[in-house]
Amino acid sequence: MRSTRSSKFGTVHIDSTVHIDNHRTEHADTTVRSDRTLRTGKTSRTARRSAFATSGRRTTRVSAVLLATALALAVTGCGGDDDNDGGSTKPSARGDGGSTVTLPKLDGESLEVAAVWTGGEQKNFKKVLAEFEKRTGAKVTFVPAQDPIINFLGSKVAGGQPPDVALLPQPGAIKQAVDKGWAKPLGAEATKELAENYSQGWQDIGKVGGKQYGAYYKAANKSLIWYNAKVFENAGASEPKSWKDLLSTAQTVYDSGVTPFSVGGADGWTLTDWFENVYLSQAGPEKYDQLAQHKIKWTDPSVKQALTTLAEIWGKKDYVAGGAKGALGTAFPESVTQTFTGGDQPKAGMVYEGDFAQINIAETKAKIGTDAKVFPFPAVGDTAPVVSGGDAAVILDDSKAAQALVTFLASPDAATIQAELGGYLSPNKNVPDSAYPNEVQRTIAKSLVAAGDDFRFDMSDQAPQAFGGTPGKGEWKELQDFLSNPKDVARAQQKLEAAAAKAYGGKG
């Protein structure tokens, strides 16, 4: 869900991205939630399971080291010449120098594409759709959807007017769409593009029952903290490497007269991302997988430890812009923009979220790598966390035009167009590095591709929608309540477990 994440930024946590475990896959076949569990394929991954199970912590450590190195390199390479304030929609060749994807002529055809994207993200995606129209002659209409998108699609299906293609932000949503009979398998051309351009892991998370239903058009690095460089300079603050360092940096920023953190608490998913990074680093990959599958309860001591750690920031007086009440009234986009407006006296000095925050930063005219910098989410435990997410194109109304559009979205051509516009990260390994508008983004993209199949997906996106993907319900609401009262950890755990047990069908 949401979208992306650098000392700058370049570090692409995706590189360090925690690998997604295959054990989630087994569960995924039996429950909607596990369907988000996705993280590995439903079939033909048996051979990998034992290897992944024994190498989780090692992989995370290596990834974290690579991530930190990449970030450092990216920061030194950010320059004005790399900036791109508009990009282009020109067709681009494959990264390997081959020909562009071949698309059929679709004169007179029309189709609808639904996604939850808004603002700059929606605007940039429409430029990709415009290129598809130019090449095929088809007419494409973007349909703004609401969260949770599965409910939105359900109403459209019930009314007999489903969009032809939908961009789904959770693996579980793909399985749910398949189980309901809405989603249609991808055809030979789209599948061919995926095989040529994506690692097996990214192909597998779009599969249900061994069939390819989703093409992951977009990825996200959700383990970054962006900061106002001028605020840090004035305060004499430095980029933290550990949670303890982060608390120290926050105090330094506070002492300089600026509130340390901006939190977009009106959007519950931002709070789940905070929790996931702390939990993954502190409890470790194995526990992360178990909690994602509800194999351990939210009343587990590891959850208590993570919530207690979060309270060191959420519960600290004057550490969050506007306090808890203000944060709960602040949507994600505003949480970013208010960090980079107001000169050296913004409402906050730092804001946590993924690489996609670049789109909102751009709206403030702050220059990434100079005015707006980024560092990896600090290590809370032994290693720094790396959490990823993404959006997959799924066909709901099968037709030649719909298949052609998903084929296009699975190609380097489409991804290259949006990469040039900024604020976007593609798991497509054949998108040329040069397509990304600055060194920070290029480094992040390289790290993502280099990670191959070693990544862990957003935990809430793996959960049943009722628990991990619905405004005002489940984990979103319970963490909002916890932000409002971070002192009552036990009550927060009990409420989280009650909501999880109900959503997971009483299992776990």
UniProtKB/TrEMBL annotation:
Keyword vocabulary terms for this entry: Transport
Region (Disordered): 78-104
InterPro entries in the record: Bact_solute-bd_prot1, SBP
Presence of keyword Ligase: no
A Pfam family matched in the record: SBP_bac_8
Residues passing through the membrane, by range: none
Family recorded in the similarity comment: Belongs to the bacterial solute-binding protein 1 family.
Protein name per UniProt: ABC transporter substrate-binding protein
Classification of source organism: Bacteria, Bacillati, Actinomycetota, Actinomycetes, Kitasatosporales
